[in-house]
UniProtKB/TrEMBL annotation:
Catalytic residues identified in the record: Y108, D149, H250
EC identifiers of the protein: 3.1.11.2
Keyword Manganese: yes
Feature type site, description Transition state stabilizer: N151
Domain Endonuclease/exonuclease/phosphatase: 6-250
Protein known as: Exodeoxyribonuclease III
Sequence similarity: Belongs to the DNA repair enzymes AP/ExoA family.
Positions annotated to bind Mg(2+): N9, E36, D149, N151, D249, H250
InterPro entries in alphabetical order: AP_endonuc_1 (IPR004808), Endo/exonu/phosph_ase_sf (IPR036691), Endo/exonuclease/phosphatase (IPR005135), ExoIII-like (IPR037493)
GO molecular function: double-stranded DNA 3'-5' DNA exonuclease activity; metal ion binding
Organism: Novosphingobium olei
């Protein structure tokens, strides 16, 4: 018996609802974490997911950001809404829930562009706060995963072109160092573990024929606590969904865990 947990930056849940429902029905993850739902709470299409057997919790925001956690046949139990550590941060980027014996954390980490500047500073502060929360989860020794759009290209092998991305906030030394600190604390990068050679992308820009030329990079990640890393059976990217009509610019990622 395995539990499949997936993540999909949907880039606008209303604009891409048919694609999202299609993916859910075709791949049937037990848990699906969504980012960039780009809708206020009252506009979230929960009823559409109920029709195909998924129960949801969500943290929305008008026009941008927004995260959600869906579970097949069970109700996720919300644990945290919003990343602790800055009461003035109102961005809808963090949602944490208990579901199927797991602590599931869905994140949409700030992009940080343009850098240098206040958006990049915000990104680095957010990553510091995330590390604090993740260290608390480690201390609890629970089976946890922090999954979603990290907006970090961890290593050179994770982009089609180091030169093209050299000045981007996703690939700055500070961003990479902050990500590496999470791994050094004891979290396992599931996609990287199963694809150590790199060359696996999760995002292709809409511009300049990036999809057609396979000019992508890996910024969607699943980090597993030690208690969960021992149960990891497989991890991957549902790449073909990026090629469908009116697709998101991200492809879904997933991990398969021994129950």
């Amino acid at each position: 018996m395995t539990i499949k947990v997936a993540s999909f930056n949907i880039n606008g849940i209303k604009a891409r609802l048919p694609r999202l429902l299609e993916w859910l029905e075709e791949t049937r993850p037990a848990v699906a974490c969504l980012q960039e739902i780009k809708t206020q709470d009252e506009g979230f299409p929960a009823a559409e997911f109920e029709k195909i057997g998924y129960h949801a919790i969500w943290h929305g925001q008008k026009g941008f950001n927004g995260v959600a956690i869906l579970a097949d046949g069970v109700q996720p139990i919300e644990a945290h809404r919003g990343l602790p550590g800055d009461p003035e941060d109102e961005h809808a980027r963090y949602l944490e829930a208990d579901v199927m014996g797991l602590r599931v954390v869905c994140i949409y980490l700030p992009n940080g562009n343009p850098q240098p500047g206040p958006k990049f500073d915000y990104k680095l502060r957010w990553m510091e706060r995330l590390r604090e929360r993740m260290r608390e989860l480690l201390a609890e020794e629970r089976p946890a995963l922090v999954i979603g759009d990290y907006n970090v290209i961890p290593e050179d092998k994770d982009t089609f072109s180091v030169r093209a991305m050299a000045t981007d906030a996703l690939m700055q030394p500070e961003s990479r160092d902050a990500y590496r600190r999470l791994l050094n604390d004891g979290w396992t990068d599931a996609i990287d573990l199963h694809n150590p050679q790199g060359g696996v992308w999760t995002f292709w820009d809409y511009q300049a024929g990036a999809w057609q030329r396979d000019h992508g990079f890996r910024i969607d990640h699943a980090l597993l606590s030690p208690a969960l890393a021992d149960r990891l059976q497989a991890a991957g990217v549902d790449k073909t969904y990026r090629g469908r009509e009116k697709a998101s610019d991200h492809a879904p990622i997933w991990v398969a865990l021994r129950d």
